[in-house]
């Protein structure tokens, strides 16, 4: 399920798998709708390739069964066959699995962890989590790493998702929540800018809110390297080269200040840093920005004036501009635009970052990030450490310090510092940039444990592959992009010998000699402790309970147990749907921070050897690494493999026709794809979706440069050479191929 959340009302017997999903008409977010992924989501739980018992890698003929480098599975997502497996860099021995009991698995894993930590120290073991796990599991993974393993090394794939927006909102507002307003504020907005986000295809259940705004006269502006399905309903679309967002918004801010269109009263009373912004944009008048970006000066002025003059206005961003080494700065520029115009903290106005992972918001709130503790507390804050240590029953001095980001964990493996890793709910070989380096790291581990539904590309490297539970089998809570916390009930008992994730974590902690810190009789016990640990933090859940969440169909954080609002209501604090009411921000002095941004080039720019820019994104029918959706027949039929989208003018230069093979080469390697001619893409930009592994894994080509603060990789821009590949007898690109989205 996506980050806005959709409700499934019933699972009725309807097909060979036994069930189909139907949307809940009363669910408070998705307006009674499910996207195509939601409609087919039941197939994942009942899929014949699902892992239903612990599997141990078996060595044969004295040769390790672990691939040395590459992707693990074939492009379609299934096993490449017994005996040999084709990986990204040649043919390697395939994984040979042997069934085992949970007792055997847990005993062996614990013994190997203890041995490695005795030899190399606590930090020799790391944990890599996922943004689709429940709040309870995210919380427990962070606690498990720091208390049971006593390691500093934990992070999750959400680092690849919203870390730029999170860092920007923390710096500007003092708090990070995907949206600082409820979704039903969108129809109240009179002007909406969508930058680097394609909601129609990536978050389709949000579309009714945009359509309602349009029906009430809102102006909709989309900014993207391509015209997408979302841009088809826009009043204005700006085709922007990847990496130019800060430049473009500098021109808009220049107009607001030059023409005195900004909300001087709001800025004076509720912000700081105006002169920094004024100085930064002084050198970027609209005519210069037009020359640098190719966007018409009149367009820049029109959008700036329209946004400032609107009674209410919203900006929504996503991965298109955030997955860059300048993603924090791009995001801060759009926040500057909202603050200067006074469009924040009131109905119909605000800034938001749209995400796609089911619990990308909750995952980063409760300790699954390298630098955070539950409640969105800083790991380096002595008061935060003391509070969380008290809840956990340990001494603050026993809490490890800050670790490293998700991608940097693989560097620690290559450096020899990390010897073992537990991966739960993630497929980093497909989702990480420069993925050959990730494969090299995983092959070097002395112990890799993967918990998942399927033998993913990452699981092909595992020593132990353990069966996880599907979303239908796991009770817990999830937090959507609004900061609204929902209870998700368990629909079915876990399939086969699969074990709820929280029970696996607790059982392993017991065998590591730390079981006294993980005594839970139910998942609700975990949530109750999470709430206590979050008390007083920015993401305060302490006023929540399972019973309240079920009754209210969700509560917005912060929702503290103490305070005047909580005391005034018999049921407790009502939650906080809208942040910053009255212009008060959770920063020292209560003011938001404006930032003077000087636009910077990407880590790689086009040059004579690599004259174009490669960008990546998602398809409407696929989800993240594609481990589940590539196994869903109805979805895979629509997009059986990725295609490279490029402008017809470039295709003409290459003498390339629709469906013929094109070779893309970056400084990290070469891959071939079928070409799709797209007149609506930026002429110097090539787009490829990232949901595949093997020879179709575009993340083998992407740049692993990191933002210095957020540690977000540069997924969305790398210099690329484009050539016609040698002719092959491939079928043409099907007309049903899905349109891509920039998120």
TrEMBL record:
Top-rank taxon: Bacteria
Residues annotated as domain Molybdopterin dinucleotide-binding: 613-719
InterPro entries on file: Asp_de-COase-like_dom_sf, MoPterin_dinucl-bd_dom, Mopterin_OxRdtase, Prok_molybdopt-oxidoreductase
GO biological process, any: respiratory electron transport chain
Domain Molybdopterin oxidoreductase: 94-511
A Pfam cross-reference name: Molydop_binding
Signal peptide limits: none
The keyword Iron is assigned to this record: yes
Keywords from the UniProt entry: Iron, Iron-sulfur, Metal-binding
Single GO cellular component term: membrane
GO MF annotation list: iron-sulfur cluster binding; metal ion binding; molybdopterin cofactor binding; NADH dehydrogenase activity
Protein name: Nitrite reductase
Species whose genome carries this gene: Paenibacillus oralis
């Amino acid at each position: 399920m996506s980050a806005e959340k959709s409700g499934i009302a019933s699972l009725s017997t309807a097909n060979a798998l036994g069930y189909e999903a139907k949307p809940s008409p009363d669910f408070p977010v998705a307006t009674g709708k499910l996207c195509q992924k939601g409609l087919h989501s039941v197939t994942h739980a009942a899929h014949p390739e699902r892992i239903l018992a612990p599997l141990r890698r078996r060595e044969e003929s004295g040769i390790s069964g672990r691939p040395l480098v590459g992707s693990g599975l074939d492009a379609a997502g299934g096993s490449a066959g017994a005996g040999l497996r084709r990986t990204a860099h040649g043919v390697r021995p395939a994984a040979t699995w042997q069934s085992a009991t949970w007792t055997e698995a847990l005993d062996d894993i614990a013994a190997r962890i203890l041995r490695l930590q005795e030899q190399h120290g606590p930090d020799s073991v790391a944990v890599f989590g996922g943004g689709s796990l429940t709040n309870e599991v995210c919380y427990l993974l962070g606690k498990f790493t720091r208390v049971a393993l006593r390691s500093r090394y934990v992070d999750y794939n959400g680092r690849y998702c919203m870390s730029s927006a999170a860092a920007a909102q923390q710096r500007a507002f003092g708090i990070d929540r995907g949206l600082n307003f409820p979704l039903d504020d969108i129809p109240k907005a009179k002007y909406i800018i969508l930058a680097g986000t394609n909601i129609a295809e990536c978050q389709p259940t949000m579309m009714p809110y945009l359509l309602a705004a349009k029906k009430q006269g809102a102006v909709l502006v989309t900014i993207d390297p391509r015209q997408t399905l979302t841009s088809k309903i826009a009043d204005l679309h700006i085709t922007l080269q990847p990496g130019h967002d800060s430049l473009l918004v500098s021109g808009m801010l220049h107009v607001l200040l030059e023409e005195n269109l900004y909300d001087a009263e709001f800025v004076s009373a509720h912000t700081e840093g105006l002169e920094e912004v004024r100085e930064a944009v002084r050198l970027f008048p609209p005519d210069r920005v037009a020359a640098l970006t190719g966007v018409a000066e009149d367009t820049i002025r029109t959008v700036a004036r329209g946004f400032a003059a609107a009674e209410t206005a919203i900006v929504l961003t996503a991965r298109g501009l955030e997955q860059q080494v300048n993603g924090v700065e791009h995001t801060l520029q759009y926040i500057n635009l909202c603050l200067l115009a006074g469009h924040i903290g009131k109905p119909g106005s605000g800034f938001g970052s749209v995400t796609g992972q089911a619990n990308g918001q909750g995952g980063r709130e409760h300790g699954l990030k390298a630098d955070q503790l539950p409640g969105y507390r800083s790991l380096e804050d002595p008061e935060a450490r003391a509070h969380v240590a008290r809840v956990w029953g340990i001494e603050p001095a026993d809490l490890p310090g800050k670790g490293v980001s998700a991608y940097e964990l693989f560097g620690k493996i290559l450096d020899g510092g990390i010897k073992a890793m537990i991966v739960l709910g993630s497929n980093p070989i497909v989702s990480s940039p420069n993925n050959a380096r990730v494969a090299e790291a995983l092959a070097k581990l002395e112990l890799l444990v993967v918990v998942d539904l399927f033998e993913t590309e990452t699981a092909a490297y595992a020593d132990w592959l353990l069966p996880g539970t599907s979303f239908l089998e796991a009770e817990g809570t999830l937090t959507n992009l609004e900061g609204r916390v929902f209870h998700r009930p368990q629909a079915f008992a876990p399939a086969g010998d699969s074990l709820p994730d929280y029970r696996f974590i607790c059982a392993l902690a017991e065998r590591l000699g730390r079981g006294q810190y993980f005594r839970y009789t139910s998942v609700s016990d975990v949530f109750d402790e999470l709430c206590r640990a979050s008390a007083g933090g920015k993401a305060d859940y302490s006023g929540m309970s399972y019973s309240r969440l079920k009754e209210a169909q969700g509560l917005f954080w912060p929702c503290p147990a103490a305070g005047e609002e909580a005391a005034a209501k018999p049921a407790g604090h009502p939650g906080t749907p809208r942040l910053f009411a009255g212009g008060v921000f959770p920063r020292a002095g209560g003011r938001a921070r404006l930032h003077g941004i000087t636009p910077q080039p990407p880590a790689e720019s086009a040059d004579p050897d690599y004259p174009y820019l490669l960008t990546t994104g998602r398809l409407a029918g696929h989800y993240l690494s594609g481990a589940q959706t590539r196994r869903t027949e109805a979805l895979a039929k629509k997009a059986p493999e990725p295609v490279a989208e490029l402008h017809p003018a470039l295709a003409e230069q290459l003498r390339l026709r629709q469906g013929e093979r094109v070779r893309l080469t970056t400084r990290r390697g070469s891959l071939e794809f079928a070409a799709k001619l797209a007149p609506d893409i930026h002429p110097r930009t090539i787009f490829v979706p990232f949901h595949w592994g093997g020879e179709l894994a575009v993340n083998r080509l992407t740049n692993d440069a990191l933002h210095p603060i957020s540690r977000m990789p540069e997924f969305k821009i790398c210099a690329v050479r484009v050539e016609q590949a040698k002719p092959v007898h491939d079928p043409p690109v099907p007309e049903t191929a899905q349109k891509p989205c920039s998120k």
